[in-house]
């Protein structure tokens, strides 16, 4: 799931009242009776009232501000356009100034209708204008919007069965006496879920399980934090078919979800291995010498290692649990199979004729797949009509926010399109790209997107907003658009491993009772190493294409 949509996790296991050393947050103590009442001046004359802390705005608010800013800039940025070939690709060197011919009333109408156009605006085949009453091709993100809601329903139904929670619990218990293998196993599972479906906020429900396990093995709370955050985070960074990152970006770049999957799989394997090795190295160091822990140990933490032998074995997976887990695996495997352009992957020729068994599915078919799969899982789990319906609706509701982010971001591009400034912005950076070696181009895309990922916390919103500008640059640099998608998602994923504007990071360190400053101290060497590896992969990918 989109790690920055700031939605609550789909489920949180209820494990009863937390013990004294439970990793979940505890209620703050009551205020000191001798402390001055809120809003009154203290005795030393300090200013009255509590200090207000800055809260980073939500992705929806950021995009509203971006919409207004782009609309205002459209009055200043001159209109222009490129000549295009039959497939709609802009031709390098053909940029020329034009007149949008828009009156103030029409510009106000574009601003007013931007969310509507972002959902189901249609682009006129003759004028290129986008509007809800035009005749032509769909420009809005209605297909992606429905796909996000469908996969939200599917994920929520799966978690409601409890099969995934119990499966991970069984894995953790079986490996409880093999610490390094446990860390690697949990991180690999989380990374796999991250790379195929954006597993991020769902990790918040696992701290109550993983923190005691790691303490029982003689590790500290930083090991548990890193196992969860970095395990899922590296999977999202190296998204292979993650619909909220790769899927949305591929759609905005007008390429298939399967384009570039070979590079992304290779990057996922290498970076996941490096990240697991980094966490295990620290874990072994702490276990051998507890004084080297970056966070120390809370009262009772060291006692858990002594009680490890008394851990109660979780109940075995039921036949129903196994059936649900196999079904989920098959659904995602089929999704991957359906979107991969097998002829291009196996022959190395992107223009090769598709094989007979290729499906060539896109967002409409995938949305239908997950809608049907949600019902299938509910029937297999014998949830009953009322519970299945309620859970389905709950899943759709929880994913409305990231879906709306996509719509608002697409609405920004409709303003730019109708004002005819998109090509002007593209031309402004064309000179920077022209003559740049392919490898350097891929690295530039990665670097440029780092600050954008901070300013636009939502990965799906960031993709929808940036891809219409970045993807054509790949054509000018004679690089595959899939490399741009890979470089973009790597930048977004890298930032989301540490920025304090995401619920995954701040919620995670709070649940584990690890200071954010300590987490940054732990993770920065890994971030530097990952940045170097990412630049190498995107540079190599650009050269090879």
TrEMBL record:
It is a multi-pass membrane protein. It comes from the Bacteria. Pfam families: DcuC. Keywords: Cell membrane, Membrane, Transmembrane, Transmembrane helix. The chain crosses the membrane at residues 59-77, 138-160, 180-198, 204-219, 226-245, 265-283, 324-343, 363-383, 395-416, 436-457, 497-516, 523-544. Residues 34-49 have a biased composition (Low complexity). Residues 1-50 are annotated as: Disordered. InterPro entries: C4_dicarb_anaerob_car-like, DASS-Related_Transporters. It is found in: Cell membrane. This is C4-dicarboxylate ABC transporter. It comes from Streptomyces rimosus subsp. rimosus. The lineage of its organism: Bacteria, Bacillati, Actinomycetota, Actinomycetes, Kitasatosporales.
């Amino acid at each position: 799931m989109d790690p920055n949509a700031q939605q609550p996790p789909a489920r949180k296991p209820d494990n009863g009242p937390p013990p004294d050393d439970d990793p979940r947050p505890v209620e703050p103590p009551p205020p000191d009776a001798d402390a001055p009442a809120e809003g009154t001046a203290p005795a030393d004359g300090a200013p009255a009232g509590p200090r207000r802390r800055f809260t980073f705005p939500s992705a929806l608010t950021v995009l509203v501000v971006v919409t207004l800013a782009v609309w205002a800039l459209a009055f200043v940025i001159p209109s222009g356009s490129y000549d295009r070939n039959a497939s709609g690709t802009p031709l390098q060197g053909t940029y020329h100034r034009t007149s949008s011919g828009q009156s103030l009333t029409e510009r106000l109408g574009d601003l007013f209708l931007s969310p509507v156009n972002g959902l189901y605006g249609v682009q006129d085949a003759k004028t290129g204008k986008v509007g809800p009453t035009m005749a032509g091709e769909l420009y809005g993100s209605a297909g992606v919007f429905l796909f996000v809601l469908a996969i939200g329903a599917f994920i929520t139904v799966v978690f409601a069965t409890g099969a995934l929670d119990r499966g991970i619990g069984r894995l953790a218990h079986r490996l409880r006496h093999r610490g390094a293998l446990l860390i690697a196993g949990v991180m690999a599972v989380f990374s796999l879920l991250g790379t195929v479906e954006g597993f991020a906020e769902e990790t918040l429900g696992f701290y109550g399980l993983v923190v005691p396990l790691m303490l029982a093995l003689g590790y500290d709370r930083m090991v548990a934090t890193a196992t969860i955050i970095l395990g899922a985070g590296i999977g999202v960074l190296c998204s292979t078919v993650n619909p909220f990152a790769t899927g949305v970006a591929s759609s905005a770049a007008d390429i298939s979800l399967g384009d570039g999957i070979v590079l992304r799989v290779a990057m996922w394997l290498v970076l996941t291995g490096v990240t697991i090795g980094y966490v295990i190295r620290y874990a072994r160091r702490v276990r051998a010498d507890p004084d080297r822990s970056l966070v120390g140990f809370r009262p009772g933490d060291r006692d858990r290692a002594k009680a490890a032998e008394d851990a109660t074995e979780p109940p075995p997976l039921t036949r129903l649990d196994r059936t649900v887990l196999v079904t989920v695996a098959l659904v995602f495997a089929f999704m991957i199979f359906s979107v991969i352009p097998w002829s291009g992957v196996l022959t190395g020729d992107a223009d090769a004729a598709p094989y007979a068994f290729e499906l060539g599915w896109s967002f409409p078919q995938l949305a239908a797949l997950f809608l049907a799969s949600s019902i299938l899982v509910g029937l297999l789990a014998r949830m009953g009509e009322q519970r299945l319906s309620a859970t389905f609706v709950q899943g759709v509701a929880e994913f409305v926010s990231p879906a709306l982010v996509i719509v608002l971001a697409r609405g920004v591009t409709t303003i730019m399109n109708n004002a005819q400034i998109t090509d002007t912005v593209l031309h402004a950076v064309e000179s920077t790209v022209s003559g740049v070696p392919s490898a350097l181009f891929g690295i530039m895309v990665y670097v440029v997107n780092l600050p954008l990922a901070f300013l636009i916390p939502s990965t799906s919103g960031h993709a929808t907003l940036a891809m219409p500008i970045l993807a054509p640059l790949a054509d000018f640099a004679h690089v595959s658009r899939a490399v741009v998608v890979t470089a973009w998602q790597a930048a977004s994923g890298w930032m989301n491993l540490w920025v304090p504007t995401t619920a995954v990071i701040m919620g995670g360190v709070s649940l584990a009772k690890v200071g954010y400053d300590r987490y940054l101290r732990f993770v920065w060497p890994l971030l530097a190493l990952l940045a170097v590896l990412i630049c190498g992969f995107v540079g190599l990918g650009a050269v090879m294409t």
